[in-house]
Amino acid sequence: MFCDRCGATVQPDQRFCGRCGKEFSGAVAIVPLPNRVQEHIRLLGILWLALSALNAVAGVVMFIIGNTVFTHLPEMGAPPGMPAGLLRSLFTIIGIMILTKAALGFFAGWGLLRREPWARMLTIVLSFLALFNIPFGTALGIYSMWVLLPARAEREYEQAMSAASGI
């Protein structure tokens, strides 16, 4: 049980709060501790969907540049020593990797919004990878780790899952 003035833990037979000194008259008010993960999970899911949309656009642009510009580079009057084939392959592979990261981010955001059991761990892994995506990925990675990584976050996420599924 908790004091309704300061939130300190009190015993049922306690007459005064040990922290603020408030006198209890009979019944002690029960104030549940807020579930930090549940407060932030919806915003986190939406932000992962938004970052993934930006990554998807960047991946498509890289893929298009790799397969159009570098394919026709010799026709555009490029110097003969220009490695067009290497650049085409490099841009295509980078574009595919960014699109894969975007797909995983969409999957994580969707899972967070639906409170899926696997979404927390996928989001934590993607958060570490997003730290290198300056500035938006870094900010979202730090925010995701702040919400999902603490020791009690797993228990709070499981409570949010059970509340969402109606168990």
N-C termini distance: 24 Å
Shape label = rod-shaped
Helix content range of the residues, please? 55-70%
Overall mean pLDDT: 87
Structure summarized in a few sentences:
This protein is mostly helical. 61% of the residues lie in helices and 0% in strands.
Overall description:
The structure is a single chain. The protein has 5 helices and no strands. The protein is rod-shaped and about 90 Å long. It is 61% helix and 0% strand. It has 167 residues and is mostly helical. Helix 1 runs antiparallel to helix 2 (84-113) and helix 2 (84-113) packs across helix 3 (119-130).
Key structural traits:
single chain, 61% helix, 2 domains
List the helices and strands and how they pair.
Blueprint: H1 36-69, H2 84-113, H3 119-130, H4 136-148, H5 153-165
Helix pairs in contact: 1-2, 1-4, 2-3, 3-4
